[in-house]
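Run folding on both entries below.
>entry_1
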Amino acid sequence: MNIGIIGLGKMGLAIAKRAIQHNHTVSGFAPSEETRNLANTFGVTTYESVADLISHLPTPRTIWLMVPAGEITRSTIITLSEILVPGDTIIDGGNSYFKDSQIQAELLESKSINFIDVGTSGGLKGEEIGFSLMIGGDKTLIKSYNPLWEALAAPDAYAYMGASGSGHFVKMVHNGIEYGIMQAMAEGFELVKEGPYSNLNMQEVSKVWKNGSIIRSFLMDLAYDAFQKEANLDSIIDYVDDNGMGRWTVNTAIEHAVPLPVITDAVYARFRSRQQESFAGKTLAALRNEFGGHEVKKK
């Protein structure tokens, strides 16, 4: 197949490289000349503008978006909707909010432009082992792209989810689960480090946990890799960002009255990590002092 990729950062380039390795033809655009030059070295034909890219793609065109969710994705799709023609297809492989994807699908349908939302998981390792693809949109159209899905995905790691937005919805929930698992792992490793046995080796602990244990997983493999690089993570600050997908998962659960206590707590734990000091913590200390005369530590 012949595809154009908009967004050739780490994930976009990984998608491009894997497609090329499976004999698909890839063209692309990125605003950075340095990024375009790097993509060129891996066989991607790059262009200096979206319009230039579109003009060089054979029809019907297929455009894969791998850009940040939100306003950048929305504005890019609006731009494309004014350039593409009926029968062309936009695939959004980023971490878009599923409700946004429903809106994008309606906009493009009004212009007879196809839209497929693909929740893409696998991280940087996906280039090597294949990605996990959760795909939403028109089932017949999606089936016609099977050669592309098979090239990009790990074995048995792509499937049709349902109507437009469902691919990104399933990916959102996937990321919510990821929040919960990561938080449980982080808390467990902290207890190992701060518990009754001093100087336990995190490299050894993570090694045996990742091999044969009930909690072995890809994330545990990555924990082992992290501890191999730095045994006690001394250079890392405990500030944990989020891309919004955990929040969307919790908000959607609230809308549908589905209890998600673990995932919700994991989202709040990330918020707490960004506070140098918590006003809630100060208030708790002050209250204990007021009712019981308990000592308050002051600056």
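>entry_2
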Amino acid sequence: MKVLVTGTAGFIGSVVAVKLAQRGDEIVGIDSINEYYDVNLKYGRLERDGIDRNNAASGKWVESKEYPSYRFIRVNVEDGSKLEKLFAVEKFDMVCHLAAQAGVRYSLANPHSYIRANVTGFLNILECCRHHPVRHLVFASSSSVYGLNEKYPFSPRDNVDHPVSLYGASKKSNELMAHAYSHLFGIPATGLRYFTVYGPWGRPDMALFLFTRAILDGKPIDVYNNGRMKRDFTYIDDIVEGTIRVLDRPPQGHPNWNGRNPDPSRSRSPYRIYNIGNNAPVGLMEFIAAIEKALGKVAKKNFLPMQPGDVPATWADVEELVEDFGYAPAVSIEQGVEKFIKWYKQFYENHP
């Protein structure tokens, strides 16, 4: 297949692109390489995947030195005209759309960036899939759509009309937009609600990265809601495995879908929504203990109240992903944290 993967300088997108290239697919990767967090980490991911940093920064086409079927070019999904030209020339079979403005707390301070990247950018992707039909569009949604929901575990069949951050609202918007285009233009579209992805090369704004850095520097870590939090932490390899399995099987539409009692996770149109998580929430204090054990250092803890836009717990019901795709997350929190810390120490020894 010829696959467009957006966000290939990002955490998940970089690994998806490589896994697809390793199995022989032709990959075009794009990323804006914006400055939301340290661009050296983004370029580091690209360099790991054989993409020359200087050529990537200049906006030239770059062929991977590691994976001959992988090419990269710097493109922002907010630039509709560039995206349109790319689709017209490349004629993609599949699109895996992972580019986004991420982060809950950042959305409180910079809301416009979420509308530009997550709403306008996604509209541009949908328009390109409309005018240059693809066999399947897989796009990243988020557990943040569940917002004020308190029924656990979270099911893709639950109502998600009460987000508590603009980030969550933008991801719910993506799901609604994708359904509209699936219904109107027959675009096979699947949204994946990712649950707290972590692992080597992860984002610096995520808890694991922040805690590790602070503990190694001898600084206190901020523990929100006084530690009474749970997250369905999901290791990067498990996330990527599930994403690729979904990409390979476009949805068909459900003939028994009932508009009088609508299931939000599916439709008569070729459209599906799945949770993708570990289905095993971990308490925040247990998570911190795993980091302390792997580092051999005890954290100084600064206990704080719940932050705006945050939720006390996430827990993914992945039953449908298991039934439809044989999804089986395999990495424990202890294993995943240990792998991250090993990577972190090595990376920052070489990139002080």
